[in-house]
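for the writeup, i need someone to sanity check this before i put it in the appendix. the sequnce is what the collaborator sent (i think, or maybe the updated version? ugh). structure was predicted straight from it, no edits. if anything looks off just tell me and ill rerun, i have time this weekend
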Amino acid sequence: MPISENARSSEAIHRKLRAIAAVLLDPAATEHERTNAETLKIRLENQLRQEATPERTWRDIMFRLGRAAKEIKQSTSPSSPKGDWTDHAFRLGRALRRGLKK
């Protein structure tokens, strides 16, 4: 049972632990299945403990907030320099519009 990036929530880990417990309690499970389930159980419990620490959660939130702010800062298009051809076209269009009104 590989743990994907989408299954990081504690609820998903609890569901996986329940499934592993069912394998461990199954009398028809082989010895290899039981050892695999036991190692997965230990790994998932460690991951659940890591997710429960408030320091890590706080740091993750701040890191993601900083990254999002950096992306927002970089995603804005740079302002066009003065004297660009679009500025001249805008002024020409405004002059023509005023001239046609008179």
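The chain has a mean pLDDT of 76. The helical segments are 10-25, 31-52, 54-75, 85-101.
thx in advance!!
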